[in-house]
Amino acid sequence: MPALFAPRGSHEDIEEGAAFAPKFDSAGLIPAIVTDAASGEVLMFAWMNAEALERTIKDGVATFFSRSRGKLWKKGETSGEVLKVDECRTDCDQDVIWLKVTPQGRGAACHTGRRSCFYRIVTQENGRFILEPRDTGRLFDPEDVYGK
Fold first, then answer.
1. What would the mean pLDDT of 30-50 be, rounded to a whole number?
2. What is the phi-psi region of residue 83: left when phi exceeds 0, alpha when psi lies from -120 to 50, beta otherwise?
3. If pLDDT is split at 50, 70 and 90, which confidence band does 3 have?
4. What is the torsional sign of CA 60, 57, 111, 100?
5. CATH number among 3.30.70.100, 3.40.50.620, 3.40.50.10540, 3.10.20.810, domain 11-146
6. Statement: residue 136 has pLDDT above 60
7. pLDDT class of 1 with cuts at 50, 70, 90
8. Side-chain half-sphere of 68: how many Cα atoms within 13 Å?
9. What pTM value is reported for the model?
10. How far is CA 112 from the centre of its chain?
11. Are residues 43 and 34 in contact, defined by beta-carbon separation less than 8 angstroms?
């Protein structure tokens, strides 16, 4: 782990101390929840490795680790939908990251072109669980941005 992160200490050190000692899982990843700094709306969820977390804190721009591509992914590098980090928090046992961000560009955090990745709700219909759109408006066309 980079020297910027403290080693994991006692339970009390982790929960009450000033040392930032994030707990990465066995794959070297930590979950990151991203919300809009102004509205509090949940925009997305992603994974970070130590390098992504370090870059995010140092640069002030959300950077994640893409499990499917196996590499770092600076949010907005292709789409222009950069997430400027206003605040980086961690939970009590330091195994989750919470980024409060100000979206740049058109304000779309989701690769589908929507503001949030959480644009559907789970409901029941005829005894089955289904997804019902709540925010179907796209801020950009993904095919125009990413191709097919």
1. 97
2. beta
3. low
4. negative
5. 3.10.20.810
6. yes
7. very low
8. 1
9. 0.92
10. 15
11. yes
